Amino acid sequence: MGEPDAPRKARVSNWSGMSSDQASARPRGAGDALRAAFSSVTGWLTPGSGEQSDGSKGNRRASSQPSWLRRHWIVASVIVVTLVTVGGVGGWLFYLNSQLGNIDRVPLTLAESKRPPVTEGEELNILIAGADNGPGPSIAADVAADRWRAGSHRSDTIMILHLPADRETAYLVSIPRDSYVKLYDENGDYTYTDKINAAFSLYGPSGYISTIEHLTKLRMDHLAIIDWDGFKDVTQAIGGVRVFVPETFYDDSQNLRWKKGWQTLEGQQALQYVRTRHGLANGDFDRIARQQNFLRAMMAKLLSGGVTNSPTKLTSALKAITANLTVDDGWSNGDIRDLALSVRGINTDEVTFLTAPLGRYDTSDNGQSVVLLDPKKSKALWRALADGELDRYAARHSGDTLRKPDKVK
Question: Across residues 10-32, what is the average pLDDT?
Answer without folding.
Answer: 39
